[in-house]
Amino acid sequence: MDTSATTPGSADVVIQTVTIDSMQVNVNGEIKQIKNNLDDLKSLLQNMSAENFKSGDKIYNIGTITNATFSAEIGKKTFNMYLCRKLTEALSDYSADAKDFLTNIRDADKADWETQVRYTRKANGYIISSFVGVLGILLQKVISSGIDAFNSTNSRDYIEVCIATATRALQLLCFSFISKLWDYKKENNFECSRDQLNILDNFFNSEIELNISDYVELQQTLISIFDAQKISYPFNEFNKDCLEDGSPFNKACKNIEDIKSKLDCGQIIYATAFDAENELTAFLCTLSFLANYKMVSVKDITYNDIRNETVQYLHSYTFLGVDNDDKLFSSKFKYDTRPVSNDAVLLYKDKYQEGLNLFPFIVDVNALTNEMEVKICFYTYFEGRKKRLTYSDINKIASDKNDDSKNIGDPSQLVIQFNDDVEKDFESDPDHDITGLIKNIEKFKNLQLNIVYRIFQNAQKEILG
Questions:
Q1: pLDDT for position 404
Q2: In 10 A of CB 103, how many CB atoms?
């Protein structure tokens, strides 16, 4: 926590003119010009053996001021500068575009290139296109909401998007491990410990949304299972040390949860948004290896068996993210001699045909119900008594709700209610003729959504035993 108070008098060190990349500092009447960043200000005060400085009508202690408070109140920084620089640097190990970009920055601009729009515009594009699938889309929201928040000085939406991005990234990590565990357990008989089962049971049967610390605990449990059974991780770059107490990633998770608590209690200030940016940056830098991966949503698989020709399957799928032509959520069609799972969301490194199926933890609801637009939703919680699954739509954030809305629910959530009547209609026909159901659009949609519920229950039973 930084110390600031209304100044009772004058200070020996006074911040005067501040620009986007520099600031003038009055030190005992002598004007010094330094770069607009906290490290340079700290260095100056250390050289002058000064502990405090004045900016506007406040006195700050150089030893306790946070980077977020400096950015918000003194440096007049815009949101996403820190995120843009650090993520671009982290991605350079996995993205040729990011690496070439950093190499080609002019020497004179290398120290603070993130303050220049001509650089950040390009770097932000690399960040959005590099991070795997839906995370790139969420980062696009982070960047755009940061601009809106800075212009309006209303930072709530920006904070919410930062929290949502970290939450979905952590969920993606957990869902990938759970999906691989499910595949492994179908072929290998083993039992988890009681403590491990309790954590897994909380994931499958919690009737409220898990928080970030719950997902960290789940991920730690999954690592312990994978290590005990010698199962290879779904991400070979993943370093389990990031889950240790005191690691930058673990600290970021705890701090993001603290920011979420402040948001829920209405205790945020403008500087909190810079805290959210800093913690999301530390969080995503640890997961920068996700730039090695891609995601697709499989919409349809068509069997083609033409006389005296090789059997082929027409794969209809949507690339989740920005493709090589800079198109977002582009439709793709490909002939292949092998089928893939229909309605699947696949995570892959090289070939989507060999990808990890994340269904039913991540689903494209519109692919299931035969609608055009992509609608990617993440599993959130399960209410067994009500036969209800709740998912979160990544394209919506809770604050999207209109003030005059009569719906008290969270607009970011989508409920899949198991429909008993439709299921009975389906099972009542021994030939499984669904012509009547298909003709009724609503019944067909419910039939398709019932599949999600049934597959979720299968995963639940087979993993928990």
A1: 47
A2: 8
